[in-house]
Amino acid sequence: MSNTDITPDDLTEAASASGSIDDAGESTVETPAPDESPVAEELAAAEEVVIDEVSVAEENTVEADPVGEAEVEVEADVVGEDELFVEEPAPRPRSPFDRPGRWYVVHTQSGHEKKAQQNLAARTASMNMEERIYESVIPMEDVVEFKNGKKVVVQKKMFPGYLLVRAELDDDAWYVVRNTPSVVNFVGSGGKPAPLPRREVENFLAEKEEGSEATPAKRTKARLEYEMGETVRVKEGPFADFSGEIVEINEDQLKVKVLVNIFGRETPVELEFSQIARL
User: Nearest CA to 254 among 236, 237, 275?
Assistant: First the structure.
């Protein structure tokens, strides 16, 4: 059949077979409906599950990295600060009682404590007794005195005429100490040296760090030069050369009250520290 033989009826039949023709005479092709078979539905559902799992994995990866880095950085910083700022407690000074040897009291000639200490050190070295006679100390303390109306703190001997010696005391060590010039004898009952107990050693000797040089002991709290009940002499004023007992001490005003015997009657007299002296 040639092209010239196609009639309108033939076109209508062809359109009816493949689609439809609208009112304008144009043909419309209908899109076939999607495959709604069970296999297609299962494939679509599996594809959605895979997509969801991928999305969840991406979210976890994005959130976990920053959190992990932050936690590591915070922990590292905290540990670093703790290591830098933790302070170890300072070691406690060793008690003088715990040093080798024992402490003994040695009686010296009056006013010759320093000389006896020097003589003992020289004698110990010359007789090679350093391993048994370790050190000697003159106990000192802070004392409050009043000079020219002012309060001053001075160091004075705690026990004038005595020396503390630390030693491993055997017959040889005893002989060296006992025969040192300016030394009179050891203090003890029956002439036998008696070592000092811990309480008295720590009371007489200020604690110091191990390895430091031997220095005179020193009390941390100063005491007044005069004490209650002490008898003093009046140096100046209307009661000069009178003696009496101290019954009151006023440290703030630098004054004391002394019971002075006036015409057979004890009368309290207020005096300044500078007006009295020890007998």
Answer: 275
